[in-house]
Write a structure and sequence with these properties.
- This is Peptide ABC transporter permease.
- One of its GO terms (cellular component) is plasma membrane.
- InterPro entries: MetI-like, MetI-like_sf, OppC_N.
- Belongs to the binding-protein-dependent transport system permease family.
- It is a multi-pass membrane protein.
- This protein is α+β, with helices and mostly antiparallel strands and 572 residues long.
- It has 2 domains: 111-295, no CATH class; 355-570, MetI-like (MetI-like fold, Orthogonal Bundle), CATH 1.10.3720.10.
- It is 45% helix and 23% strand.
- It contains 17 helices and 20 strands.
- The protein has helices at 3-35, 38-47, 50-67, 69-72, 216-220, 230-240, 251-257, 355-391, 393-408, 411-420, 428-459, 462-469, 474-482, 487-510, 522-526, 532-537, 543-565, and strands at residues 93-97, 102-109, 112-116, 123-129, 131-138, 143-148, 152-155, 158-161, 173-177, 180-192, 195-206, 209-210, 222-227, 258-273, 279-283, 287-294, 297-303, 317-319, 323-325, 328-332.
- The strands form 6 sheets. Strands 10, 11, 13, 14 and 15 form a 5-stranded antiparallel β-sheet that branches. The protein has a 4-stranded antiparallel β-sheet with strand order 1-2-17-20. The chain has a 4-stranded mixed β-sheet with strand order 9-6-5-16, with no helix packed on it.
- A hairpin with a 5-residue loop joins strand 14 and strand 15.
- Helix 8 (355-391) crosses helix 14, helix 9 (393-408) crosses helix 11 (428-459) and helix 12 packs antiparallel against helix 13.
- The longest helix has 37 residues, at 355-391.
- The relative contact order is 0.12.
Amino acid sequence: MTKKEKLEKFKKAQAQTVVTNSTEETESIDFEEVYLTRGQLMWRAFKKNKLAMFGMWVLIVMYIAMIFADFLAPYNPFQQNLNQFFKKPTKIYTKYETVDLKTRMAPFVLPEVSYIDPLRYTRTTQSALFPSKIKVRFNDGRELTIVSSTVVEERDGKIIPKYLPKGRKLDGEIVVSPSIKLVVQTLGFAKIDGEWKQYKDDTEDKDYLIFGLEDELLKEGFNVKITNSRTARSVVAQNEGWKMGFFATSEQEALERLTEVKLEERLLAIKYYDKDYNEHQIDLTNAKLVSYDYKFYPIKWFVKSWGPNKTDPGRVGYLFWIIPLHYHLFGVDNYDNSELVSINIFGTDRYGRDVWSRIIFASRISLSIGFIGLTITLLLSLLFGGLAGYYGGMVDEVIMRLCEIIMAIPQFYLLLLLRALLPIDLPSSQTYMLLVFILAFLGWPGRARIVRGQILAERQREYVEAAIALGYPDRRVMWRHIMPNLATYLIVSSTLSIPGYILGEAGLSFLGLGIREPSASWGNMLAAAQDVDILQNSPWLLIPGAFIFIVVLAFNFVGDGLRDAMDPRTLG
């Protein structure tokens, strides 16, 4: 057989396979259309819309998070911590590094402090190094290891490391101290007319060092920082210039003459305390720092961070709003109860409250208000629209004119008017219900007109006229024969209307007319990000807006998918 004959034979076999597959596929489709129920056909049509499936899963995740908010929130959403206001999202570490040890460990966080940067004179939040172990070698060869009592425990006269990094062992003479402090000398210099002049000589005891700024003190024993920032030069010229005999007629002249600022830091000594809190000091002129470790706080699953307890009964979390909850999905093992330690995956707000915890709790309001408001709107629209469409006449005229009057007023201004007529200082629970009824009141007229039009059309159908002729009561004719034919419209329109309720609540809360502090909703959380300075320095406060955007988009995707699934033409 020649190559040409073999090729023709292969093409015939391939064509036959395509025809066979096409026939099997057609038979499969016919089988599905004939034997699948209407619900199964609708689900098949819905699954074909990828965006609708994406929106459905997003909403499932969001509503599960809403239900289990207490479990997913690592911190009490109402608890303030002014030591961590406007804190950026927590940096999670997996690599531990000191002068003599580099190792990878399970995820952990470090204490974070708010301080004024001495080079830029701006307030910022940065990770801090709190010494947990320091080992020194004296000039006579003797070695001493000072360990913080928070990272070890004594058992049967033995000191057992508990919160020291992996691979670290305690050896030599060991002293357990309640506190370890570093004695640091800071010298300040300004470069004036090309010559360095000293303006500062301070010595202070430090509990911690700033990572990336001062941690070189433990590695090298000294640290030098030089800057030519305008702010630093201006501050030194205005506040410290007289110490150096420096005077200028204008700020511009001062900045031109004072060109650089330098800070030199030196580690002079180490202070520690014995069990009786007697102070001891090791002068580093008589000893050398061999190694050191710093405090770290492991991230763990199922942490007992906040919840019902005897010492603070106000810190209560509940599962399904009924079962007292002690454990939460994730958190930090804060073994020494430091106020500087937390895991804030979305940062904190101006009061030091965890943004992630507040977003999860706010979803209970922002996601539930749509369904509750929609339920009331549907009841009103079905009631009034049904009466107007079924009975007609004067009833129809009165109801429709009322709908037109309400619809003639711009909804946003009517929303503000209705809210302004009511007390502004209501509790959040009453404000929530108030918003539900206001939004429902604004939503029913338009839907009632559409229900009325569809009922007018359905009332002319033969099966409805037959039911009336048989003497069935009006209620049975309405609910058994007319209303089932409106189900498709009601389901699709309701899904597409829920985002309007979410946006309405968010808008009122953003303006201060809805849910108010300390309660949380996505709208009033966005209100904290109105200031331009906050937007520049704390952009994470805009994250609630992203949740609003995602949820509204997801509802629209699902609404489009339902509309396609309920279209008879897509069911075959």
